[in-house]
């Protein structure tokens, strides 16, 4: 389960005690709301469905998939469907490849989403074995579904932009720079990532 509102407050308060800049931003913008997703393969499948399309388009494809495969969406059921059936649900050839990669790993027990390594980098390496799941998608899964407290998706443009504003930098920091800048917020970088998305959309910062 993802980080709850109570955990976000606790973790951000702990950061703010040592970081006056974060404390001031918290004062101006308030606390973010929790972002919790279910653990398991469906959340990753939904991530694949949602890549590079609008929220409305992703929802439409998801609804068609659910109608075709049933609410449980058993991985083997997807693997048993042919190209045209999945195409009619709205899955492009590329996304079908990604979805099949995920389903094959799960159905064969080559990937156990209930037993990912405790080490974050090892867990990211496991998840990125799935075609179409890059580092960012893996980090988002570990943060929103598993609630790992020290995930820092430094490749996210909104995180980079918000960190640049927060620290009053002359330009948006690169992924490498954002990763380095986030070191000061260990071991609560997950809460800080959610806070950066919150401040990104907040005119007070």
* N- and C-termini, Cα separation: 29 Å
H and E string: HHHHHHHHHHHH
- The CATH architecture of the largest domain would be Orthogonal Bundle
Number of helices: 12
Helical content band: 55-70%
How would you characterize the largest beta sheet?
none
**Quaternary organisation of the protein chains:** single chain
**Overall strand count:** 0
What is the CATH class of the largest domain?
A: Mainly Alpha
In the CATH scheme, what's the topology name of the largest domain? Endonuclease III, domain 1
Looking at CATH, the homologous superfamily of the largest domain is Hypothetical protein, domain 2
Spatial extent as radius of gyration: 18 Å
Question: What features would you highlight for this structure?
Answer:
205 residues, mainly alpha, Endonuclease Iii, domain 2, Endonuclease III, domain 1, 2 domains, 12 helices, 60% helix
Description:
The protein has about 200 residues and is mostly helical. It folds into two domains: about 5-35 and about 150-200, Endonuclease Iii, domain 2 (Orthogonal Bundle); about 40-145, Endonuclease III, domain 1. Helix content is about 60%, strand content about 0%. It has twelve helices and no strands. Helix 1 (about 5-20) crosses helix 12 (about 190-200) and helix 8 (about 120-125) crosses helix 9. It is elongated and about 55 Å long.
